[in-house]
Amino acid sequence: MAKNTSSSAFRKIDIDQYNEDNFKEDEAESSGPTGPDEGEISLKLVLGNAPLGSSSQQVKDNALAITLKVLLAIKSAQIEEAVGNLSRDDIDILMKYIYRGFEYPSEGSSGHLLLWHEKAYNIGGSGSIVRVLSDRMRV
């Protein structure tokens, strides 16, 4: 049986900091690019160097991991501007990475990828989705 003590030492620990509902978006996004131009430059770089014709799955998986880091590092408010500066081909490649990201979700990635999908869809339209899906059928 437990002893009844008047010790309140256990109350000095703030257990609310471990609650998932108290997640602060500003803290998570502070580790991303320091300026809006850095995120756009990184995005254009990873999309421009996508290993589309590669037969190595390891190369494709590495490119996906890097691209997802870039996508998740760009703040929500900067997504529309970043997508607006992409070409049609880059938007199609972006959609491919978004759908691949949905296949391998990580903590908090799905909601952020949905924002990317919405903005990419607004620019690329349903044609972008059809091109991505038809490309998957050929592979």
TrEMBL record:
* Tagged with keyword Disulfide bond: no
Q: Which Pfam families match?
A: P16-Arc
Entry's localization field: Cytoplasm, Cytoskeleton
Record has Cytoplasm as a keyword: yes
Region span, Disordered: 1-40
Fetch the InterPro entries from UniProt. ARPC5 (IPR006789), ARPC5_sf (IPR036743)
Keywords of this entry: Cytoplasm, Cytoskeleton
Start-end of Acidic residues biased regions: 17-29
Q: Give the UniProt family note.
A: Belongs to the ARPC5 family.
- Summary of the function given for this chain in its UniProt record: Functions as component of the Arp2/3 complex which is involved in regulation of actin polymerization and together with an activating nucleation-promoting factor (NPF) mediates the formation of branched actin networks. Arp2/3 complex plays a critical role in the control of cell morphogenesis via the modulation of cell polarity development.
**Under which name does UniProt file this protein?**
Actin-related protein 2/3 complex subunit 5
What taxonomic lineage is listed for the species of origin? Eukaryota, Metazoa, Ecdysozoa, Arthropoda, Hexapoda
